[in-house]
Amino acid sequence: MKDNSKTLTSYKKAHTLLGKIIAMMENGEYCIDIMQQNLAVIGLLKSAHQQLMEDHLNSCFKHAMGTNNQKRKDQMIEEILKVSNLANK
User: Fold this and answer.
1) Taking the complete model, does pTM exceed 0.85, yes or no?
2) How far does CA 47 lie from the centroid of its chain?
3) 7 and 44 in contact (C-beta within 8 Å)?
4) How far is CA 13 from the centre of its chain?
5) Which of 4, 9, 60, 78 is the most exposed place for a label (fewest CB within 10 A)?
6) DSSP three-state, residue 69
7) Are 10 and 54 in contact (CB under 8 A)?
8) What is the mean pLDDT of each run of 10 residues along the chain (89 residues)?
Protein backbone atom coordinates (compact mmCIF):
# COMPACT_ATOMS: atom_id res chain seq x y z
CA MET A 1 0.00 0.00 0.00
CA LYS A 2 1.15 3.51 -0.73
CA ASP A 3 1.48 6.34 1.78
CA ASN A 4 -1.78 6.17 3.69
CA SER A 5 -1.46 9.45 5.61
CA LYS A 6 -4.38 11.09 3.77
CA THR A 7 -6.64 8.10 4.47
CA LEU A 8 -5.52 7.90 8.08
CA THR A 9 -6.23 11.62 8.53
CA SER A 10 -9.79 11.09 7.26
CA TYR A 11 -10.29 8.23 9.73
CA LYS A 12 -8.93 10.28 12.62
CA LYS A 13 -11.20 13.22 11.76
CA ALA A 14 -14.18 10.84 11.51
CA HIS A 15 -13.26 9.34 14.87
CA THR A 16 -13.13 12.78 16.48
CA LEU A 17 -16.46 13.78 14.95
CA LEU A 18 -18.09 10.56 16.15
CA GLY A 19 -17.10 11.47 19.69
CA LYS A 20 -18.67 14.88 19.16
CA ILE A 21 -21.86 13.30 17.81
CA ILE A 22 -22.13 10.98 20.79
CA ALA A 23 -21.74 13.94 23.17
CA MET A 24 -24.34 15.89 21.20
CA MET A 25 -26.77 12.97 21.44
CA GLU A 26 -26.16 12.57 25.16
CA ASN A 27 -26.73 16.31 25.66
CA GLY A 28 -29.96 16.24 23.67
CA GLU A 29 -28.77 18.75 21.09
CA TYR A 30 -30.83 19.75 18.07
CA CYS A 31 -31.39 16.91 15.59
CA ILE A 32 -30.38 18.91 12.51
CA ASP A 33 -27.05 19.83 14.10
CA ILE A 34 -26.40 16.16 14.84
CA MET A 35 -27.37 15.16 11.29
CA GLN A 36 -24.97 17.72 9.84
CA GLN A 37 -22.11 16.25 11.86
CA ASN A 38 -23.23 12.77 10.84
CA LEU A 39 -23.05 13.76 7.16
CA ALA A 40 -19.55 15.10 7.74
CA VAL A 41 -18.50 11.70 9.10
CA ILE A 42 -20.10 9.93 6.14
CA GLY A 43 -18.19 12.23 3.77
CA LEU A 44 -14.90 11.50 5.52
CA LEU A 45 -15.52 7.76 5.39
CA LYS A 46 -16.45 7.90 1.71
CA SER A 47 -13.28 9.86 1.01
CA ALA A 48 -11.18 7.31 2.93
CA HIS A 49 -12.86 4.46 1.05
CA GLN A 50 -12.14 6.10 -2.30
CA GLN A 51 -8.50 6.66 -1.38
CA LEU A 52 -8.13 3.05 -0.24
CA MET A 53 -9.66 1.85 -3.51
CA GLU A 54 -7.33 4.01 -5.59
CA ASP A 55 -4.30 2.84 -3.63
CA HIS A 56 -5.37 -0.78 -3.99
CA LEU A 57 -5.95 -0.47 -7.73
CA ASN A 58 -2.59 1.22 -8.23
CA SER A 59 -0.66 -1.31 -6.17
CA CYS A 60 -2.07 -4.76 -5.35
CA PHE A 61 -4.49 -4.91 -8.27
CA LYS A 62 -2.00 -3.61 -10.83
CA HIS A 63 0.61 -6.09 -9.59
CA ALA A 64 -1.84 -9.02 -9.83
CA MET A 65 -2.91 -8.03 -13.34
CA GLY A 66 0.74 -8.01 -14.41
CA THR A 67 1.21 -11.67 -13.54
CA ASN A 68 0.38 -14.78 -15.53
CA ASN A 69 -1.70 -16.18 -12.66
CA GLN A 70 -5.26 -16.18 -14.06
CA LYS A 71 -6.72 -17.47 -10.78
CA ARG A 72 -5.21 -14.51 -8.90
CA LYS A 73 -6.46 -12.07 -11.56
CA ASP A 74 -9.99 -13.47 -11.31
CA GLN A 75 -9.84 -13.30 -7.51
CA MET A 76 -8.75 -9.66 -7.57
CA ILE A 77 -11.56 -8.72 -9.96
CA GLU A 78 -14.08 -10.56 -7.78
CA GLU A 79 -12.82 -8.71 -4.69
CA ILE A 80 -13.14 -5.32 -6.39
CA LEU A 81 -16.67 -6.11 -7.55
CA LYS A 82 -17.66 -7.32 -4.08
CA VAL A 83 -16.35 -4.17 -2.38
CA SER A 84 -17.93 -1.96 -5.04
CA ASN A 85 -21.30 -3.65 -4.60
CA LEU A 86 -21.11 -3.23 -0.82
CA ALA A 87 -20.22 0.44 -1.19
CA ASN A 88 -23.23 1.04 -3.44
CA LYS A 89 -25.82 -0.46 -1.09
Assistant:
1) no
2) 6
3) no
4) 13
5) 78
6) coil
7) no
8) 83 97 98 98 96 93 92 93 88
